[in-house]
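Tokens in:
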């Protein structure tokens, strides 16, 4: 999304916890996303089963250009050597933190 980081954090909160983040939460996560970091490479062999690889590759070649909202298309992109940026990985970490929060567990 070509919007400021605060709006991206807000969108993740709305989609995950069904509420807007507080000012301090927004400041915390925007600072987290913009911290300098290295791209983390998986140490485990993440080679998918042939069927998943074929589905991911087929969806990656569809109309959306290999991206968009389709998770298998994004997975196919990663199989083809497209790596995540540090900022993208920070947003993934934020999303996982929200999913693993007690607020998400008890409310959803």
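Residues out:
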């Amino acid at each position: 999304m070509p919007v400021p980081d605060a709006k991206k954090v807000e969108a993740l909160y709305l989609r995950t916890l069904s509420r807007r983040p507080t000012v301090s939460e927004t400041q915390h996560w925007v600072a987290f996303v913009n911290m300098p970091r290295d791209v983390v490479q998986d140490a485990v062999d993440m080679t998918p089963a042939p069927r998943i690889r074929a589905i991911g590759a087929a969806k990656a070649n569809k109309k959306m250009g290999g991206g968009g909202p389709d998770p298998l298309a994004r997975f196919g992109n990663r199989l083809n050597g497209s790596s995540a940026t540090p900022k993208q990985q920070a947003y993934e970490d934020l999303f996982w933190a929200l999913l693993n929060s007690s607020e998400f567990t008890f409310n959803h």
